[in-house]
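Sequence in, structure out.
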Amino acid sequence: DQSGNLVALGPVWHATSGLSYVTIDKTAPTILAATIATSNAYDPTYAKSGDIVTVLFTASEALDAATVAVTIGGSAATITGGPVSWIATVTMSGGTDAVVLFTIAATTADLVGQTLAGAVFTATSGPSSIQYDLTAPTLSNFQLRSNNLYNAAAAKLGDTVTLTFTS
């Protein structure tokens, strides 16, 4: 105890040196929070090829950096940060249009080797979900008209010309 009293553990006992102590960790780590974001400058809910998708996550306790593994959109992420708050990034390329999924692997462990509670942490939707979009927009049904009283296909100074199309 803190007073220096030792516990006998049978015929053989072990003690730490000095006033140190050992903590027994019986709790598996959990992911407390995770968010996903994109570098897309036009819409924070979309990513296109070349955009960087970032997952920020916080664990309930320090994680062993050698065990932290994250996939984003099916690709292995580059991991930085730690030991409790982490950043995972992937530059998007290839693939198909889909919601960007991310997974924090079940092999992720705390400093004593206990793996994540709940096996795998996966996020698929929510307010911070990202849509991967590779499809270029198409435009059709172009119409150019003016408000000219005599001919909608002609315009003079002061007339309003309107372009309509379908996307």
